[in-house]
Amino acid sequence: MEEVEKILEDLRICKESENKEAEGNSYIDLGSAYHDLGQHEKSIECFEKSLVICTETGNKDGEWKAYCKLGMAHTSLRKHEKSVEYFEKALAISKESGDREKEGETHSNLGGAFFALSLHDKSIEHFKNGLAISEEIGNKPSEGKSHNKLGKVYLFKCQYDKSIFHFEKGLEIRENMEDKRGQGRSYSLLGKAYYALSQYEKSIDYHEKALAIGEETGDKKGEGNACNNLGDTYHALSQYERSIEYLQKGLRISKELHYKQGELKSHSSLGIVYHALGEFEKAIEHSTKSLKISSEMGNRQAEGTSYSHIAGVYHALGQYDRCLECYETGLEIAQTLGDKQVEGAICTNLGTLHYALSQFDKSIDYYEKGIKICKEIGDKMGEGRAYT
């Protein structure tokens, strides 16, 4: 909070001296500080004040920055339609000013917002626009990021060749820049692509490279993420003890860093591993912890996923009423957020649950809903799971 207090003092001085430009900038700084603290409503209030001042004074650069910040804050609140609205206003300003760097950055922001809304073709369109601008102006860091972002969309769409192509391009750029941490992130993404292809040995090779870079550069967050990814991959190979070893290590690192997202991921994956081992009490314990952390963070998407994992354990235990309750809560969250991927997965799981209850009409209804959603968003893996 020291930083907040310092900015508030700067803001007081700006107001006393009637320096409107500096006041607008201070509100941006204050909003960014609140955003970093996870106080998103306060951050939005500050960014809105900055926007009003910049609009009054004709500060177009400040307007662009305020719109971008507002978009990011609403992204943190999972209000992606609002994010798109603000990013599109920022894009219009960058085009009017002819600032290609800002235009490229805004295209990238829009690509992320459309991806969150499962509008993947629009997401690809904006990421490609951002990539083209980065290449045009010679902005290599942005070019590398654009390749990674395109790779992630293609990975979700199960277009693995395209995904790997972009991840390898991103890696090549980071190698030429001698950006070790960037290389680590690229190795991690390639590991995820080969995991999706069920090429687990290759996946492990890339995640081990990411882990080595994390340890070498002192990137503890990268190290923790690599441990979690290795844990997931060893789980896929049914090497449960090694999986748990890596996930526990990832959890320890995240706790040391107070990195809540990493803790959430470790607990979530540990819940799934213990479920596979039939250790249902431990599975519920870790999934409940991931639910608690996601609720504290206001991460509704992860909250819905946690409910789904807990429901799966109750299904295995034959506690169908509790299972149904958790799935319905998870489904409601997914529908509220417009998270089609999770919605489709839960519909498929509800189909399986109602089949177990011999409620065949309901089972078919949910399976058909799951298939329809997966087709809409191009989730081939989810579609295949619903058919089986």
DSSP, total strands: 0
Question: Could you give the order of the helices and strands?
Answer: HHHHHHHHHHHHHHHHHHHH
Q: Which strand-content bin applies to the residues?
A: under 5%
CATH superfamily grouping of the domain at 198-298: Tetratricopeptide repeat domain
| Assembly state | single chain
What's the CATH class label of the domain at 198-298? Mainly Alpha
Q: What is the SS-derived class?
A: mainly alpha
Give the overall silhouette.
Answer: globular
From the 3D coordinates, which CATH architecture of the domain at 198-298 would you assign?
Answer: Alpha Horseshoe
Task: Provide the gyration radius in Å.
Answer: 22 Å
User: N-to-C terminal Cα separation, in Å?
Assistant: 53 Å
How can the largest sheet be summarized?
none
Q: What is the average of the pLDDT values?
A: 93
| pLDDT < 50 stretches | none
The residue fraction in helices comes out at: over 70%
Q: Count every helix, treating DSSP H or I runs of 4 or more residues as helices.
A: 20
Instruction: Briefly note the CATH topology name of the domain at 198-298.
Output: Serine Threonine Protein Phosphatase 5, Tetratricopeptide repeat
